[in-house]
Structure formats: C-alpha cells, structure tokens
C-alpha cells in the first residue's frame, strides 16, 4: 500500500481567487512546490482532491478544469521535476444552474467519494497519509477517511476548535 499527500487545490496548491480556471490566474502558494518535491522524494503519492462548483454554476466547463490541472502539472514539472500523481474534481453543486451537475452527490467534500476513488486506484493507506485543506469541509472528508495527519492551512491564523486538526499558517510547517 502507498502513502499519499492529499492536497486541496484552491487555497492550498494555488491562491484562491474564486473560481480559478485560467492558466493566467495560477499563482502557487508559497512553499507548496517544495513540499510536493520533498514528499515525492519520500515516496508519497501526490493527489489533489478539489470541489469545482464553478462547473455546476455555469462559470466554466470540465475541460477548463482539466486544462488548468494540466497547466499546474506542467508548471510543477518544469520547476521541480515532479507533478501530481493524480487529481480528482467534483463538478457538482446542489444550487448549480447546469442541470446535469446540479444535485447532491457523493464526491463533493465533505463527502468522501473522490477520496475513495483515489485510494482504490492508487492503493493508498489513509492511516499513513497526510491531508492539507483550507476549509472545514476538506478536513471533515479527510477525517472520515481515517487520515491521521490533517493540516488546516490558514495564512490568516484561523483555528477550528477541534484539536484533531493541525493548524498551520505556512506550508513549510507540514511534517512529512
């Protein structure tokens, strides 16, 4: 079984500018590239799990997310020599305007559908894995998957009362 570094996308891999989907809007979070490289050198699978409700809201399409993720991977490969092993995204939102995506699904965090898919496809042992998220729904999904080290990334130093999440205000504070 493999260990994984699970990452949320907007707010953890890249700066969240609301509905980011264009390559010109990619700005990596400080320290994330170095963390990805360090994790790869320690045999972690790097997996992005992201909610992309902009699809259901009609702001962009699945192909735009795939193109943006390919751009992230190419940028990572060019700068650190490694890319994400896999990414998974949820296009759904119950309040969307695009009918085929506008329902409550089992993949939108805090649901665990995308985590389960990743674990099955990449043979991941969650008890040996790490998750970094910036929203409570991210953390709840990781906790439901029995991931033991769950980091809450908040540059603004917001701290949830739940002690089971490790608060960090800098990606450099993640311990592999």
Molecular structure report:
By secondary structure, this protein is an alpha/beta fold. The protein has a single domain, classed as HAD superfamily/HAD-like (Rossmann fold), CATH 3.40.50.1000. Helix content is 27%, strand content 17%. The chain has helices at 32-41, 62-80, 113-122, 136-144; strands at 3-7, 44-51, 86-90, 130-133, 149-153, 166-168. Strands 3-2-1-4-5-6 form a six-stranded parallel beta sheet, with helices on both faces. Strand 2 (44-51), helix 2 and strand 3 form a beta-alpha-beta unit. The chain is globular.
CATH-scheme architecture: 3-Layer(aba) Sandwich
Count of discrete alpha- or pi-helical segments spanning 4 or more residues: 4
Report the biggest beta sheet as strand number plus sense, adding barrel if it closes. Answer: 6 strands, parallel
Q: How much helicity do the residues have?
A: 25-40%
Number of strands: 6
Series of H and E elements: EHEHEHEHEE
Estimate the global geometry from the Cα principal axes: globular
The CATH class name reads Alpha Beta
- Using the coordinates shown, work out and report the CATH topology: Rossmann fold
Q: Spans with pLDDT under 50 lasting ≥5 residues?
A: none
């Amino acid at each position: 079984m493999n260990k994984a570094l699970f990452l949320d996308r907007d707010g953890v891999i890249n700066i969240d500018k609301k509905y980011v989907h264009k390559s010109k809007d990619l700005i990596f979070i400080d320290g994330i590239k170095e963390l990805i490289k360090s994790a790869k050198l320690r045999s972690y699978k790097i997996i992005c799990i992201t909610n992309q409700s902009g699809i259901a809201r009609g702001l962009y399409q699945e192909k735009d997310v795939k193109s943006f993720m390919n751009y992230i991977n190419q940028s990572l490969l060019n700068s650190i020599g490694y890319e994400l092993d896999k990414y998974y995204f949820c296009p759904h939102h119950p309040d969307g305007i695009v009918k085929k995506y506008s329902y409550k699904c089992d993949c939108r965090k805090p649901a665990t559908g995308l985590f389960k898919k990743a674990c099955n496809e990449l043979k991941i042992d969650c008890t040996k894995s790490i998750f970094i998220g910036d929203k409570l729904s991210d953390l709840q999904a990781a906790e439901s998957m029995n991931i033991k080290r769950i980091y809450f990334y908040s540059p603004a130093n917001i701290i949830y009362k739940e002690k089971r999440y490790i608060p960090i205000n800098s990606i450099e504070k993640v311990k592999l």
